[in-house]
Amino acid sequence: LGGESQEMLKDPSRPSDADYLFVESTYGDRLHRSREDTVKEFVSILEEARKSKGNIVIPAFAIERTQELLNELSLLAAKGVLEDYTVYVDSPLAIAATEIFKEEENTKYFDTLMKNLLKKGRSPFSFPNLKFVRRVEDSKALNDIESGALIISASGMCDAGRIKHHLKHNLWRKECNIIITGFQAHGTLGRAIVEGADTVKIFGEPIAVRAKIHTLGGFSGHADQQGLFKWVSNFEKCPTKTFIVHGEEKASLAFGALVEEKLGF
To answer: What b/e string do you get for 210-230 counting C-beta neighbours within 10 Å, with b at 16 or more?
Structure first.
């Protein structure tokens, strides 16, 4: 279930009746920061990175998360916040998905705010210093950049794809910043980084973690506990049975207990 704070995509629809309900619980035990606070933190990271003169690397899922980030970056670019950066989208799948987002007939899936911006002629996928990296050779060339690059690449949990190369070349540099915007599952490279590992293995090689690590949950594609509960509360009668799925045990149990206590499911 998406959160209501996503600027680009419509809010989740709210069915009111079900015999059996299966509901996710990825963030069933925690709350996200508000979108406003998330953007403020994002800007502060950009300013910090500018002073340290390193790169910024953002692992991001190719569909929806990358496009949401581009939308936010386009707004910041319009305010002059990105003048010292070149933004690279280095994921063939993310680039292909972005082309689909651009197609006129698909704008019906956008939220009202995004539709209004498009009517005014502003595209979230086109701003100065934005470059889409398709060729392998161009992707490899990014590893030679030491400063001023903001690289968005997949996979979102850092376990496959081009992001691993960018982490290999930037994680060990204390002047660099890594921004985690999505959920990191147990056993993934992204989870190890978020949990503060001093060293991680990438392509079998130990890489020291010296870059600054930031987590911005407000950009997540998943609703937090409050958003999940609000959605479930819309049911007019108690389903015959409710299954809490798609979450680690701690989060699932916490959300299950909340739904049982407050709604009697």
So the answer is: ebbbbbbbbbbbbbbbebbbe
Asked if 153 contacts 57 with a C-beta cutoff of 8 angstroms, the reply is yes
To 5 degrees, how large is the angle CA 135–CA 138–CA 142? 140
Contact criterion met (CB below 8 Å) for 57 and 176: yes
| CA atoms of 23 and 201, how far apart (whole Å) | 34
Give, in order, the Cα–Cα distances in Å from 230 to each of 17, 181, 204, 220.
14, 23, 44, 17
Taking the CA atoms of 69, 71, 72 and 76 in sequence, report the sign of the dihedral they define.
Answer: positive
Contact 56, 179 (CB under 8 A): yes
Q: Which residue has the tokens 């207990």?
A: 257
Burial of 159 (0-12, 13-18, 19+ CB in 10 A): middle
Note the Cα 57 to chain centre separation in Å.
12
pLDDT along the chain (265 residues), means of 10: 80 92 97 92 92 95 93 92 94 95 82 80 87 97 96 96 97 97 94 97 97 92 94 95 96 98 96
Sheet holding 130-132, edge to edge: 130-132, 86-90, 149-153, 56-59, 177-180, 212-215
Q: Strands 86-90 and 149-153: what pairing?
A: parallel
